[in-house]
Amino acid sequence: MTITEFQTRAPREPAIAISAERMMADLALLAAHTKHAGTASERESLGLLEARMAAAGFATRMLMHDAYISLPGAASLRVGGRDLTCITHSMAAATPAGGVAGELVDLGAGDAEAFASRPVAGRLVLVDGIASPGVAVRATQAGALGVIHVSPHEHLHEMCLSPVWGNPSLATRDALPAVPVVTVCALGGAVLRALLGQGPVVPVLEAAVDTGWRQTPLLVAEMAAPDAQDAGFVLLSAHHDTWHHGVMDNGSANVAVVEVARDLAARRAEWRRGLRVCFWSGHSQGRYSGSAWYADNHWDDLDRNCVAHVNLDSPGGIGAGTLTGTGVMAALRPLAALAIHAETGQRLRGVRKARSADESLQSLGVPSMFGSLSGQDAARPGMRNRLGWWWHTPQDLLDKIDPENLARDARVVWRCLHPLLCEERLPLAHDQTLADLEAELAGLAPQLAGQIDLGPVQALAADSRAAAASLSGPAATVNAALQQVSRLLVPLDYGHGDRFGHQPALPIAAWPVLDPLRRLAQVCAMCREDDIRFARVDAVRALNRLRHHLTQVADCLAGAAEAAGTR
Predict the structure, then answer these.
(1) DSSP 147
(2) CB 469, CB 4: distance < 8 Å
(3) How do 368-372 and 306-313 pair as beta strands?
(4) Fewer CB atoms inside 10 Å of the end CB: C or N, the chain?
(5) 331, 348, 297: which is closest to 167 by C-alpha?
(6) Are 489 and 510 in contact (CB under 8 A)?
């Protein structure tokens, strides 16, 4: 479905009653709290949101569950008789009392090639950029003694370094970093490099990190549609735990979610589906432990009933005038594009949904949109995102919020939720999902010529795209088919097809199911005959998985068309 086709179908929504004043008043109350996961202050702050949702007519539940939480403590870095200001990070290893000392090795970007170029076992490594799980994993695997990150500027950004999505298990806990990690500012990095220019440098790094199992809260607020029978629900969510006071990230999202839910609740008579609102803990200090726990422990309910997920993170920042680069899954791209254009006049670029922001329902197969919605017009050099220099710092305070931007972002979310709740037919465009797959296959086909014939799978994807674009009939039949297609395609678009686990919290390519085919293409280009034979084994299996899922998609769409009498 194109954006134009969606626009002609979408009904005109009523006036949106979003109050910037009400949101800013609640945000000021939330801003009085630090909200580190599992702390009393977090629980007290969450009580305000519970009261607001209850007042809007939602049934609320406060769930408490075990979560593996890591709270950074004090950190120090001493070199040549000089103390450099630094912070340590969530899920990094703590040092023994007195710290660790080792020769410093400058690895620049800290990528795989840099780690392979120098011996780092038993040494401290110096790496440019904001701390990341990828560097922590490489340092652990290389036997480094510790990592010193150099911030791209004067600010030190709090980060969680676990590559494990959600709570670690017996199978994944060994993937956690086993090295202490600190970050210094750009000036501190310059000091270290100046000393390295004079000869060997042996810093002393000390860091305290409190990591272990804690009870964390999860607020669920729910309202059913007035006459819905097994019509499912839309999930609206935001994380509540923060770094420090976390006013933009993520207090602004909390108040925006409450405001949007409050206004939609007043229009409940129009709903065809229910609305479930979740405020997660464990996002910041638990690598999405709350949303992952919820997905694991409510899997059957979510699988049967959740039609879409709208997540909001860090809206309303000062200077955040750009909404064109927000991430949206392909099936929801026309809906998001229409909402953003209607509110701002901007054109959505069609950026893939990032592997972040409590996207714990991707593997299960729930289509989703957003996370961070608006960003700075010009990103600061070296920043990981466009959320402002204050992101993940103690400076994320009330003065970083623009009330007009906050109201604008809330209205965009409203414009997406209203059709999801109220339209008779779900506004999901899986022809867009399949078009993205066709583009990936078209790029691989010439690289695999003579090895694997992608033609039959390409034809199956093209036929399914045409069937999805022309799908019509009774709403119940169409909606059931769209939901089933979501469960078949999303786990391949954002994973390898395992609907019961979670992908690592690391960057992934589009359609990871195609990764074995990509590896085969790479070794074919190198003309390494043995490697080609080995790679082809995995590629054939991946192609079988993709063909199996696409056949199920085709059967599902054909069945819906036959039931509707359009075939």
Answers:
(1) E
(2) no
(3) parallel
(4) C
(5) 297
(6) no
Q: What is the pLDDT of residue 298?
A: 98
Q: Any idea how long the chain is?
A: 567
pLDDT tier at 128, thresholds 50, 70, 90: very high
**Whether the bond into 250 is cis, omega within 30 of 0:** yes
| Mean pLDDT (the chain, rounded) | 94
Q: Which two tokens stand for residue 449?
A: 């010529």
**Mean pLDDT calculated for residue range 86-104:** 97
- Note every long-range contact of 533-537, with CB atoms under 8 Å and residues 24 or more positions apart, other chains counting: 536/451, 536/452
- In angstroms, rounded to a whole number, what is the distance separating the alpha carbons of residues 528 and 517? 15
Residue type, 221: A
Q: Tokens standing for 230?
A: 């097994």
| Encoded tokens for 351 | 């950026």
Does an H or E element contain 61, and which? strand 59-79
pLDDT digits 0-9 by tens, 54-66: 999 999 999 999 9
List all residues 6 or more positions away from 459 whose beta carbon is below 8 Å from its beta carbon: none
Rounded Cα gap, residues 283 and 291, in angstroms: 8
Per-residue tokens: 13: 């929504």
Report the pLDDT value the prediction gives residue 4, as an integer from 0 to 100. 52
What pTM value is reported for the model? 0.94
Q: In the prediction, which pLDDT does 381 show?
A: 67
Phi, psi for residue 329 in degrees, rounded to 5: -65, 150
C-alpha distance from residue 432 to each of 230, 330, 428, 481 (Å): 27, 5, 9, 15
Residue 186 and residue 150: Cα distance in Å, rounded? Answer: 6
DSSP letter at 24 equals H
